[in-house]
Specification:
Residues 238-266 are annotated as: Disordered. By secondary structure, this protein is α/β, with parallel strands linked by helices. 34% of the residues lie in helices and 19% in strands. It has helices at residues 10-21, 73-93, 129-144, 167-174, 191-203, 222-233, 243-246, 269-273, 283-294; strands at residues 2-6, 25-30, 41-44, 59-64, 100-106, 117-118, 151-157, 159-161, 179-180, 185-186, 188-190, 211-214, 220-221, 240-241, 265-266. Helix 2 (73-93) runs parallel beside helix 3 (129-144), helix 4 (167-174) crosses helix 6 and helix 6 runs parallel beside helix 9 (283-294).
């Protein structure tokens, strides 16, 4: 099987390495293809530009793993809507035997659910421009591929953490972490499990469902995660409060895009029903593995 990774950042590269390790040919598109490992055939591409390399003639699966260049509405639209549209144009112009296109999405399309459980049957209600634009891209994928014989798959990932993604650890270690005054559930997935899920959904024999939630087994309150990290680091418990309570007097209040993730509990039952197994079923295993690898940074 030949897999085209349209977008080969950290997550796309890890997924590409796993495809290659399984014996598949992998072609990776990114702006700086020279940064890709040898097992991924790199090609220079900017999805938002519309000027893309030819689709590999024997490509049977495409993974679209896009990231916006900046946290702005324009950057999100250029990456997710324009980039995906250009990718689909290229596939539909080609004669490649593509049978499956997986789009890496986000649980941000659900917005805030007040701590309730949600799954693939829950109607998306984005709370900000990021979720709204990513949802628009999902709908574009599903509508464009209808009747083409190509199976669309949307993988809505929770907050990705892992190597190089240590924001919460850094906050606890640096003393800036705050336990929310009110309950706030968070959902996450280790980078390696996210990459493994991409490979699994692209290679499984049964035809996959249109949408899957890519989160680990245990939605957790943010405060619980911060307390766990403090204990693992041997540090005092972070204080409780809000971001505003730590802002300097007279500082402007944040506005615009709501806090990422919202307050919801995402179920991964559908993904697990396909036979997928997590290496890091909860934040505890994942963060312990990260700390074991970078402990020298956190004396």
């Amino acid at each position: 099987m030949t897999v085209l990774m349209a977008g080969c950042g950290d997550l796309g590269t890890e997924a590409g390495l796993r495809f290659a390790a399984a014996g598949h040919r992998v072609v990776g598109w990114r702006r700086s293809p020279e940064k890709l490992p040898a097992s991924i055939e790199g090609a220079a591409a900017d999805l938002s530009s519309g000027e893309l390399p030819p689709i590999p003639a024997d490509a049977t699966a495409v993974v679209v793993a896009i990231a916006a260049d900046a946290p702005t509405e324009a950057a999100y639209r250029a990456a997710y809507v324009d980039g995906l549209s250009n990718m689909l144009d290229a596939v539909q112009r080609s004669d490649a035997p593509v049978r499956r296109i997986l789009f890496v999405s986000s649980t941000a399309v659900y917005g805030d659910a007040g701590g309730d459980w949600i799954d693939e049957s829950t109607t998306p209600e984005p709370g900000g421009f990021s979720g709204r634009i990513i949802r628009e891209a999902e709908e574009l994928l599903l509508s464009r591929l209808g009747g083409t014989g190509i199976t669309p798959v949307v993988l809505r990932l929770g907050g990705i953490y892992g190597p190089g993604r240590t924001r919460l650890i850094d906050q606890v270690h640096g003393g800036s972490a705050l336990i929310p005054a009110e309950s706030r559930f968070t959902n996450r997935i280790h980078r390696d499990d996210a990459a493994a899920a991409i490979v699994h959904l692209c290679t499984m024999n049964p035809v996959p469902a249109p949408v899957y939630l890519g989160v680990d087994n245990e939605p957790a309150e943010l405060g619980e995660v911060l307390l766990f990290l403090a204990a693992e680091l041997g540090l005092p418990q972070p204080p409780s409060g809000t971001a505003e309570s730590r802002a300097p007097a007279g500082a402007p209040k944040a506005s615009g895009e709501p806090s990422r993730g919202g307050n919801k509990r995402c179920s991964n039952a559908l993904l697990r029903s396909t036979g997928f197994e997590f290496t890091y079923p909860s934040f505890r295993e994942g963060y312990r593995d990260i700390l074991a690898g970078v402990g020298v940074r956190y004396p």
